[in-house]
């Protein structure tokens, strides 16, 4: 049994017991979260799409704040003395899928 769920504008294929990193969600370690925006649900060989889906994905927050890799954007114009450096680290939340009910 699996489902495709939409979390913070991104689609994730999940199964029970999966651990994944999603864009930052508010909450602390151990909090329970539910995702109701399912795009596809497959159970017992039957596939449900769109408005036919009645399932909910239940998950637990394992780690509330995980920082991604450092990304650096660098711009320079030659012979002009222009240099600009920007960087950031994206924040993620680690969740564990408990059930698809």
Describe this structure in words.
With 101 residues, the chain is an all-beta fold. The chain has one domain (2-100). It is built from no helices and eight strands. The chain has a four-stranded antiparallel β-sheet with strand order 2-1-5-6, with no helix packed on it. The protein has a four-stranded antiparallel β-sheet with strand order 3-8-7-4, with no helix packed on it. The protein starts with a strand and ends with a strand. The model has no long low-confidence stretch (mean pLDDT 95).
Topology:
Layout: E1 2-7, E2 10-14, E3 19-23, E4 32-35, E5 38-43, E6 46-49, E7 57-77, E8 82-100
Antiparallel strand pairs: 1-2, 1-5, 3-8, 4-7, 5-6, 7-8
In short:
With 101 residues, this protein is mostly beta strands.
Mean pLDDT: 95
Distance between the termini: 10 Å
Beta-strand proportion = over 45%
Low-pLDDT parts are none
Number of domains: 1
Task: Let me know the number of strands.
Answer: 8
Helical content stands at under 10%
Using the alpha-carbon principal axes, give the shape.
elongated
* CA-based gyration radius: 19 Å
Major β-sheet strand ordering: 2-1-5-6
Give the helix/strand class: mainly beta
Number of helices: 0
Order of helices and strands: EEEEEEEE
Sketch the major β-sheet. 4 strands, antiparallel
């Amino acid at each position: 049994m699996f489902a495709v769920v939409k979390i913070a504008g991104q689609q994730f294929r999940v199964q029970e017991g999966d651990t994944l990193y999603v864009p930052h969600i508010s909450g602390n370690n151990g909090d329970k979260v539910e995702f109701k925006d399912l795009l596809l649900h497959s159970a017992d060989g039957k596939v449900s799409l769109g408005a036919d889906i009645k399932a909910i994905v239940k998950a637990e927050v394992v780690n509330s704040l995980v920082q991604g890799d450092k990304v650096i954007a660098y711009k320079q114009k030659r012979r002009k003395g222009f240099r600009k450096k920007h960087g950031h680290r994206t924040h993620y939340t680690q969740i564990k899928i408990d059930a698809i009910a």
